[in-house]
Amino acid sequence: MSFTVDGLQSKGGVYVPVSEHTPPNPYLHVPKRDVTASSGLSLTLINPAYMARQVNQMAADIHGSQGHITSLNPVRPENAPDAWEPAALKSFERGIKEVSSIENIADKEYMRLMRPFVAEKACLKCHASQGYKEGDIRGGISVSVPMAPLLAIERPLIKKISLAHFLLWVVGMAGIVISKRGLEKQILARERTEGVLSESENKLRIVADFTYDWEYWRSPDDRFLYVSPSCERVTGYTREEFLQDHGLYSKIIHPSDRERVLTHVREDRFGRLLCELEFRIVRRDGQERWIGHACQPVLDANGQSLGRRASDRDITERKWAEEALRQRTFELQQLTETLEQRVQERTAELAKVNDALRQLSVRLLSAQEEERKRIAGELHDTIGACLTGIKFKVESALQEISKNPKAATKSLQTLAPVIQEAAEECRRIQLDLRPSMLDDLGLLPTLSWFCRRFQTIYSGIRIDQALTIEESEVPVSLKIVIYRVAQEAMNNSAKHSKADSLRLCLWKSDRRINFVVEDNGQGFDLENLLGSDNPNRGLGLTNMRERIELSGGFLEIESAKGKGTVVRARWPV
Amino acid sequence: MLRVLIVEDNRIFREAFKKRLDDRFPSIVVEEVGSGDEALQKINTASPSLIFMDIRLPGVNGLHLTKEIKKNFPDIGIAILTDYDLPEYREAAKQFGADRFFVKSSFKWDEVEALVRSISPAVS
User: Fold this and answer.
1) With contact defined as beta carbons under 8 Å apart, do A60 and A66 qualify?
2) Cβ of A449 and B91 within 8 Å?
3) Angle at A66 between CA A63 and CA A70, to 5 degrees
4) Which among B55, B91, B105 has CB closest to A440?
5) Domain-by-domain residue ranges, chain A?
6) Where are the domains of chain B?
7) What span, in angstroms and rounded, lies between the C-alpha atoms of A17 and A26?
8) Mean pLDDT of A52-75
9) Which helix (H) or strand (E) holds B7?
């Protein structure tokens, strides 16, 4: 129908005989609307719209369908749009080429379709007066086809199609359900796999990131592929800093160790063995720390190098301990050597002392024998001789007593002085051995007695006594020691020094007892005396020293040739 | 009756000395002991007027014993007997309170008799 109208339109219309069904169009105002053919037949011009209306009328008569030419600006009043059409007409103005929908008209379903009339040049012959220009939407032609006959034809088909669609839907749904389940299983399996992978990765991450030591993996070209966060604890630098600055590693190595470490990195890069190294680093805070480094190659399945995996441990404390141990060992070794040396020296000293003691022992035994010999001689010569004489005199008196009692009595009377002499000798020997005065009267009277007796023997020596100590201040055990020191020193002086003056001082000062014997004699060379090979030389001095030291005291002897001798003894009390 | 005590650890000397006193003065009572402890006991029981005291006694010094007796019994006359005729001994005897000093080996019996008579003039 559209084609028909369009065809007519392009021609501007056709002339048809005037009839009851085709009267002249009263709304067509063009010249020669009505013409008479040469045969006399009256013809009128049918414009396209008129033609369309007639076609529509014919279609309505035959098929029940209704056609309608309309416009928002109709020439004919009956061409005004119905309720559905204005919306369609407006949509044409927006460029839509066709509008269709199922609508109810008088409670019956119609398929409604509408297409636009576009103002063409030919159209403007009649419609220019309405203000249209070429290309404007002049209106539209709509058709409403009743759906009832179509639906009647369509219903069985729809049923079949519906059934088929239903079956398709069922099959489809079943397929969807099955596919869904399958997909769900796949998704579940994938999720599970992903979960396992994630957990596994998490575990590996935790294992790697929570290492105490500084763990890392370097590529064959020395870039860090992994650095454990513990690097910060060890070096003070963060993992990110190592990952960003691949030269940081060599920068923090102690200058003294750097070449050694870099040589290891260069030369062992593709090595296939475990390498261990100890070196120092300088931490960010400037602290020097010792690192125990161990690395080994990382290889792929084909044996290609993926770099090296390393563990760097802070071993500073261990190194310090080792150093301290080394130092201690060294000190111990030195100490041991010193001790050994001292032991050797001591051993030598002890051997010397032992030797001296043996010599002393020999000398003492010898001196003891000499002393016994002397006492035995004295006893024999004095008391023994007296007693023998007394015995003879008593025996002869007893023989004579009956014959000549007077002579016997006289003889016995002469015995008394002899016996007294023997008693005196006995006391002298006794006093020489050990003066009982020391026990009976004490040290001060004994020293006084000794000095007096000494002076009777050595009358050329003047003795000056300064015994300012109280008897009670001298410990009993020291009395015999001081007496023997005096005896030895004074006898030595008298025998060897040629002194003419002796001074004895005994005093107490500041919890100390001091005893000094000093002479103005010729003195002697002490070292020479004590170093003499003659075992009896210096024996008296040795005895004196032994006595003093055994009683807890100290002895000093000052003597030099021509400068006299001073014997100083002191005892703490 | 005059009582005399001899304190001497040497038995021979002690007995000889006692005999000599007994012989010379039969009227006096002569007691004898050998140690300081016995001497102190005898002084309490026998109440002697004169004591002959040795210096070297077992466990005690006769000089110290003299001093102690003199402190408690100042009226008892005490004569020191010693072996040593030395000024130190004489001086010590005097300092410790002894009245007389006899050297055992050389004293004269006249001096002893004079001492006894000085204490008891009527002694026989």
Assistant:
1) yes
2) no
3) 155
4) B55
5) 2-146, 214-314, 320-433, 440-572
6) 3-115
7) 15
8) 77
9) strand B3-7
For residue A448, the chain B residues in CB contact (below 8 A) are 88
Q: Which pLDDT tens digit goes with each residue over B50-59?
A: 999 999 999 8
Query: Where does A214-314 sit in CATH, by number?
Result: 3.30.450.20
Q: CB–CB of A420 and B106 under 8 A? A: yes
The CATH architecture annotation of domain A2-146 reads: 2-Layer Sandwich (3.30)
Nearest to A502 by CA among A423, A420, A565, A416: A565
* Domain formed by A440-572, architecture: 2-Layer Sandwich (3.30)
Residues in chain A with CB shorter than 8 Å from the CB of B56 are 436, 439-440
pLDDT tens per residue, range B79-114: 999 988 899 999 999 999 999 999 998 888 999 999
Closest CA to A252 of A267, A230, A263, A237: A237
ipTM of the complex: 0.88
More confident residue, A552 or A11: A552
Looking at chain A, which residue has its C-alpha nearest residue B55? A440
The pLDDT of residue A246 is 87
Distance between CA atoms of A56 and A143, rounded to whole angstroms?
Answer: 8
Please provide residue A160's backbone torsions phi and psi, each rounded to the nearest 5 degrees.
Answer: -60, -45
Q: How, if at all, do strands B60-61 and B56-57 pair?
A: antiparallel
**Superfamily (CATH) of domain B3-115:** Response regulator (3.40.50.2300)
Interface with chain B: mutation pick from A431, A434, A441, highest number of B CBs within 10 Å: A441
Q: What is the pLDDT of residue A519?
A: 94
Cα A275 from Cα A254, distance rounded (Å): 19
Nearest to A141 by CA among A274, A44, A48: A48
In B, which residues are within 8 Å of A472 by CB distance? none
Buried b (16+ CB within 10 A) or exposed e, A276-314: ebbbbbbeeeeeebbbbbebbbbeeeeeeeebbbbbbbb
Give the gap in angstroms from C-alpha B33 to the nearest C-alpha of chain A: 20
Q: Chain A closest CA to B124's CA: distance in Å?
A: 27
Say if CB A135 and CB A118 are below 8 A apart: yes
pLDDT over 60 (residue A535): no
pLDDT tens track for A254-307: 999 999 998 888 887 777 688 899 999 999 999 999 999 999 999 899 988 899
**Burial status of residue A394 (CB atoms within 10 A of its CB: 0-12, 13-18, 19 or more):** middle
Give the residue ranges of DSSP H helices in A401-534.
405-413, 415-433, 437-440, 443-457, 476-492, 526-530
Q: How far apart are CA A298 and CA B92, in angstroms?
A: 111
> Which amino acid, residue A440?
D
Mutate to test the interface with A, among B84, B96, B106, B108 (most CBs of A within 10 A): B84
Predicted TM-score of the model (pTM): 0.51
Is A440-572 in the same CATH topology as A214-314? no
Q: What are phi and psi of A527, to 5 degrees?
A: -65, -40
